[in-house]
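User: Can you predict the 3D structure of Helix-turn-helix domain-containing protein? Sequence below.
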Amino acid sequence: MNNFGHVIKLERIRKNMKQISLAQGICTPSYLSKIENNSIVPSQEVIDLLLNRLELSITQNKNLDDETYLAHIREIYFNAVMNKDRELAAQQLKEINNERYLFSDSTNYYTYQLMILRLTLIVQDIQNDTSELIMALSELSSDFNDYQMFLFHSCVGSYYSFMLDYNSTNQAYEKATEYFKRINIEKWEEADFQYLLGHCYITQQRWVISIEYLQKSLEFFKSGFYNSRTVESYLLLAIAQDESYLHEESHQNLLLAQKIASQLNLKEHFPLITQNLGNKFSVKGNSEKAIEYFLESIDSREEDNEKKLPTIYSLVKEYSKLKNSRQIIKWAEFGLSIINAIQSNGHRTYEHHLTVYLAKETDAILFEKATIDAYNYFKEIKDYRHAEKYSLLLGNFYQEKNKYKNAAKYFSYSNENMFKKQKISHWEDL
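Assistant: Sure. Here are the predicted structure tokens for Helix-turn-helix domain-containing protein:
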């Protein structure tokens, strides 16, 4: 066994171990550094001791070489990305992790690890030390080529998107775009990245550029009959077009998504389709019809409570428009119970939203604190849309309480965030 230092180095960093800790009683830190840089070939005894301390077992399949095995992993990666079969991807990821193939070439090993990271994100197994792998790969990124840097920043963007940190998502995808311009990749991978960018720009409310990227990805997905990705693209495109006042185009794309999903029984898309139909009726001011679709969306989620949170929040907003206090309390409490059961920081956005709406109906003192907390949170993560929303809510609250100084302050904050949301620097540009 030789040329495996890159494996030990990544695993050591992943476990947050210093070289001196790993080397203690086995070899000197300087000798370990040479091993990790593949500049020497240590004895089998040293190898075994290091692997044992890292709790890392590796079995080498001598019938395969690096290129053959990497091609096998890339095929799995391709199918997971393009077909979005999460159950199959999860099963294959488990098999890959059990195989523990040893790459003799560090470049192939890093590409392999980056594809494994994306597979992990596809199956949404965020709790499976994904952040630790990202941090470890980040420390090794100085050794990456341009394609690997593109993969790395794309994965980081996907991670932050899943965690609902859209500002960090945007920063990561902007870095990925820099490397994307330098490399030639396959058309399917290009279309996937364009879709990711389209989704990212929707969260940034950059509708025009979002539509541009989504139309490019949609064209490829349609031509290749990647039906699940086609439906996803139609759905996002409909959202961006709606926000750009292209309501007829948006409606047609939503109907196309519904038609494909129904004909091919793509059940995983039913919740998002009905969610979007609910959104359309919400915008039209028909809260009753919007609620019907939102309830249908929640029912189609079955037991997956975590994914119900966006729709629960939509329901709470519609019931708030109707001033239906009982239903606001019911759904806000249900959403918060889901968040408490998950015990993850990935849903702080919904936690703030639901806490404000619940407190508004139940506790005036708590409402003031909850809304200030929400305002500060959204301001911190540069979500100017919701920072504007909650500063306006606070301004109205203080005005009703005859606290005009506080009201003026938060009305001023609301205007400030409105300017930032629309990327306006001067009042003359309004």
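The first helix runs from residue 5 to 14. Residues 8 and 36 are 6 Å apart (CA to CA).
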